[in-house]
User: What shape does this take?
Amino acid sequence: MATAPVDHPVLAVLAFLSALPFGWPVMRAFGRSVRNDIEEAIESPLLSYFAGWFPEWTLLKLFWLLVVLAGLSIAFYKLYVFVGGLFGLVA
Assistant: This one.
């Protein structure tokens, strides 16, 4: 399935800004979780034996944070396009 470009960039920005209050608790939880991951990595003596510590769990958490924010943004965008279509504001 081919992806369509965003027809209304102003609605896309509005949708993203509308998604932020709903995504804010998720972003705060992500921040606390990453902070805990970093503190564990610093305090763990086992990690001193590894030359390069790669925070794969942190990257997975970041991926899911982005998925949640993108899903919320897309839902709001589709809602705004639908309501705009009802009122004849967008084609």
Q: What stands out?
A: The chain has one domain: 10-42+57-87. Helices lie at 9-43, 56-87.
